[in-house]
Amino acid sequence: EVHLVESGGGLVQPGGSLTLSCAASGFTFSSYAMAWVRQAPGKGLEWVSTITFRGNTRSADSILSRFTISRDNAKSTLYLQMDSLKPEDTAVYYCAKRRGNYWSSAMDYWGKGALVTVSS
Q1: Residue 18, CA atoms < 13 Å, CB-side half-sphere
Q2: In whole angstroms, how far apart are CA 13 and each of 3, 28, 103?
Q3: Main-chain dihedrals φ then ψ at residue 53, nearest 5 degrees
Q4: Rounded distance between C-alpha atoms, residue 1 and residue 84, angstroms
Q5: 89 forms bridges with which residues in the sheet?
Q6: Whole-angstrom Cα distance, residue 6 to residue 68?
Q7: String of b and e for 64-94 (b: at least 16 CB within 10 Å)?
Q8: Which of 2, 54, 101, 113 could form a disulfide with 109 if both were Cys (CB 3.0 to 4.6 A apart)?
Q9: How far apart are the first and last CA of the chain?
Q10: How high is the pLDDT of residue 64?
Q11: Which residues pair with 109 in a beta bridge?
């Protein structure tokens, strides 16, 4: 059974940094693309970033180069390094598995989410 468990969320001041982790199990992690998606309070889901099975990455224009997605296949873990955080980054961040190994495949499994609050 597929399981995705996020960790590393919490409270951080504007301009600060935080790193989220997603521990994956129940499938061959190295064969699939993975993604981070977020949902701000009162807002809809917003795609943040995707990493392919080869390690290629693509991110939303809204975050520019402030966030970095990466993966450690030996540990079956996905990461999201967040720098220069802004209050508008406050959201629940979800780890998601894509059905295939590239950008546009559907997200078929999701974690329960990790709350990130950016406030002074």
Answers
A1: 22
A2: 31, 37, 32
A3: -65, -25
A4: 36
A5: none
A6: 16
A7: eeebbbebeeeebbbbbebeebeeebbbbbb
A8: 2
A9: 40
A10: 73
A11: 97
Amino acid at 92: V
DSSP of 37-99: EEE-TT--EEEEEEE-TTS-EEE-GGGTTSEEEEEETTTTEEEEEE-S--GGG-EEEEEEEES
Return the SS3 of 30.
helix
Pairing of strands 77-82, 18-25: antiparallel
Residue with tokens 């190994």: 101
pLDDT per residue over 18-48, tens digit each? 999 999 999 999 999 999 999 999 999 999 9
Structure tokens at 100: 């295939």
